[in-house]
Structure formats: C-alpha cells, structure tokens
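Record format v2
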Amino acid sequence: MPDVFADLVGQDEAVETLRRAAAAAVAVLRATGEPEVATGADPGGGMTHAWIFTGPPGSGRSVAARAFAAALQCVSGTGCGECPGCHTTLAGTHADVRLVVPEGLSIGVNEMRALVLRAASTPSGGRWQVVIIEDADRLTEAAGNALLKAVEEPPPRTVFLLCAPSTHPDDISVTIRSRCRVVPLRQPAAEAVAEVLVRRDGIAPDVARWTAAATQGHVGRARRLARDPQARARREAVLAVPRRLTGVGAAFDAASALIEAAEAEAEASVAEIDAAERSALETALGAGGTGRGAASAARGTAGQLKDLERRQKSRATRAQRDALDRALVDLAAFYRDALTMALGAPVSPVHSDTAELARAGARSWQAEGSLRRLEAVLTCRAAIEANVKPRIAVEAMMLALWKG
Ligand SMILES: [Zn+2]
C-alpha cells in the first residue's frame, strides 16, 4: 500500500531517516511529559523539533517536508497515507500544519513573526504543530532572526521543517543550521523519475523516459513537459538558440526572444490568481457601495489595493526569474551535451532530440569552446541571481555564445 513517502523518488536513505523519526515521535507522544526518555531510547532515529531538507531543485525538498508532516500527524501509524491526519496534511487543510511558500523574492519579518506566534500554540489535534518553510534561503535577515528565536527555545510540541538548496551560509544562517537536523536529498536518477511518472501520473513509458532525461531528474518539470504542449514549445524555442546565433543582430534578437518568452510565461502563471485576489479584496472592502461612508471607505481601500499590487508585482518578478532560469538550465544542458561529446565521455545526452546539433557543435567548438559556452550560460544565471538586470545578463551571454 503506498504510504505518504511513496512519491519521494529515489531517496531511500532520507525516507529511512524520516520513518524512524516519525516512529520516535509517536513514542514521544506516548511518553507525555518525558520526551527525553523516549528520544534517548533511539538516538539514531530521534525526533527533533527542527529539520532542514536540502537538495537541488526538483529533488523533492518540499515533497519530503510535507510527507514528514503527514507522518507526524498520522493517527493510525507513521504515515499510512489514508487516515484523516495524513489526508488533510497532504491536502494542505490540516489545522496544525502551516505552510509558508514565499511569493515574492523573500520572506519578510512580519510574516515570520505571525507564523512563530501561531506555532507556539497547543496543537488542536493533540499531536504536533508543524511549520513548513519552503525556500528558507529566501528569508530576510530579520525574518531569520525571528525564526532563530523560536528554533532556539521551541515549544515542546512544535516542529519546524525548512527547505533550502544547501546548508551553505548563503542559504541558511549558521546559527539556525546548528539547531537543525539535516536531511540531504539527492538528484533522483532519471529512471526513478520515469517510473513515478508512469505509476502515479499514467504517462506513457517512452514519453516518461525522455522527459525525465530532458529535465535532468526534476520530477515536477518532467511531468509538466510530458503533459503541457506549451512547455514543450518553450523548451524547443530555447534549444533552437544555438543554431540561430549567426551574428551580432541575431544574438540580440535571441536575447529579446528569451526575455519576452519568460515574461509571457510568468504573466500567464500569475494572471489568474492576481485577478482573483483583486476581486476578492474589492468584494471584502465593499467596492461599488453607494451609501454614506462609501467615500471614506474608498480612501482606505486605495491603500490596501496598493499593498496588494506591490505583493503581486514582487510575485511576478519572481515568476519571471524562475521562468528565465528554467530556460537557462535547458540551454546549459545543451552545451554540457556538446562538451561531453567533445570529450568522448560515456554518458547519455540530456537532450536526446538535439543530440545531432550538439554533436556538430562539439566537432567545430572542441571541448574548450564547448566549455566556454557552458560557462557563459552559468555566468548569466549567477549574474541574474546577483540582481543584474536580466536583459543585460542575457545579452552578454548571447554575445559570448556567438563569439565562442
Ligand atoms: Zn495516516
């Protein structure tokens, strides 16, 4: 029977750790008042109040955190996947599980303070208060300090689950890190990803295999690529870039096309939710009212709408950067394919459908030229991450790719 950890692809070690911790957590609940006795009984599988899930994007950090939260709230075992505790946690409706997904570029201090305050309350279901923070590397410094206080002196039944790319000090502060148990996740093998796409999503085996390879083991992107024709079209446009770079003008055109495609993708992904939020707020504020007091209400309304617009703009910027980053990852993999071919390395190409093009590139660029181009793409990613304007970074990259 599939339990809550079934979708955690290719992470046997992490799953083993989490199962033992969930079992230890049950023992803690049984030995109310003497949790140290219960955890001391199994030091290797001990339950603790703060965890960090690390791993590359797509490795399943948030999937792991949610599954562990479900295992902690499971009322019939340690993550059966079928009881109300498991079910509501995975559905995102459990009263004692709070999920923070940053919409903008960072998680602010006010959001964190409110969260820490609620996390200190007694769990209504009598088990644990679980707080999941996705992208904990996007905490502002002040928010990190607010979190640190809670992690240093945790209420007895509160569990923090943080997700971050790594435990590098750039991603998570050393002091928070020192209070947490780390669960490292690895990039799952393409075969493991293909298997879950077939089993869980009913995707045809041959489609599952190539999308798993083309997205380099990123489960979510592989599923989208298999199902969404627009995602396939976007990827094809990105992989057409190398053969379009025939001159300076073409390089600038390619840069514009890449930026505009990322903007369009981001726009489509946030438009619906933006409109829904705005109309919900307007309804809540009684927009369109004509009675007495409507005029003064309208003045307060303007401020709240401005707040909403600011949040939405921040979310749109984030969505654009994410879309652009996905395109750059695809492009980097193309030059990586050329490099491995030039070196004669015995590995399969990431993009099997552009393997011929990569092979031609490998012949004319040799290993050195392929590596320089790969580095140009990686430099562009790093520049955007460091807040260089995307258009400027992408133009510099396209010129570098053209010149070689
Ligand atoms: Zn359960």
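The pocket of zinc ion is lined by residues 74, 76-77, 79-80, 83, 85-86 (CB under 6 Å).
The radius of gyration is 24 Å.
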